[in-house]
Amino acid sequence: MPGDLVRLLTRQRGIELSVQAQEAAAARSGLGQARSRRRFVDYVGDLTRGQLGLSFIYQGESVMDVFLRFLWPTVLLVGTATILMMVIGLYMGIRGGWSRGAGSITGSMGVSLLFYSMPDFWLAMMLLIVFSTTLGWFPSGRLFDAQRRPSPAWHTSSTWRNHMFLPVVTLTIACRR
To answer: Has residue 125 got a pLDDT over 60?
Structure first.
């Protein structure tokens, strides 16, 4: 069948399974059940219990474990960017209200309009090209250095600031709301 999930996932990884192995994998995943309504009820029940199954990308790990592992770095990233957006926005609003018509305010409105009309992904790529690839000031990805294993005290080191700088700047500049 063209929409067979087991065949699709195994072919993406270059794995060829026999028909019996495909049927066994489908039965383990609950894909062999004929009634989609029953599968949906099972899914909602598992969802309410926090049992999201096993990850296809992080093989052998629970989806909930993967989700929880990436939750706090995401909250830290989005929280930092949100606080910076609010502080900069309030400052620009107050300054614009006090000195209406000043050249600096008109210039800042032009720069704000430029960043507002720029796609987020393009801004992120340009910042990566300039500050990571060309200048080499910041890493191009991940939260940790590839050579080091993440320690429980990763937040006390200075490397997390280097890894989070470009994403925070991108989210702060590209704020649309």
So the answer is: yes
